[in-house]
Design a protein that fits this description.
3 helices; elongated
């Protein structure tokens, strides 16, 4: 079984897609924590603790996606086919 390098994953865009899905999951978790607080299943202190951790994860995921995006665009530009000189 071949190991996938980080360059392969970034090139394919699979990793950034995975990160976007993870960001959506974190947002969903944030809502569920809010709902649990509103239903009085969590105390305010527990809610604040959990919410701050989820927000931190969301920010880290967003930062990583922003960091990888230029690499992905650069790889697409450098791997784009060059136009032929025959004029076709």
């Amino acid at each position: 079984m071949r190991r996938t390098s980080s360059k392969d994953v970034v090139k394919d865009g699979e990793f950034t897609r995975f990160l976007q899905i993870a960001r959506g999951s974190a947002s969903e978790l944030e809502y569920h924590i809010l709902l649990a607080r509103d239903l009085q299943l969590l105390t305010e202190a527990v809610y604040c603790n959990l919410d701050s951790k989820v927000v931190e994860v969301e920010r880290m995921l967003t930062g990583l996606v922003k960091r990888l995006r230029p690499m992905l665009v650069q790889k697409r530009v450098t791997s784009a086919p060059t136009p032929s000189k025959s004029g076709c």
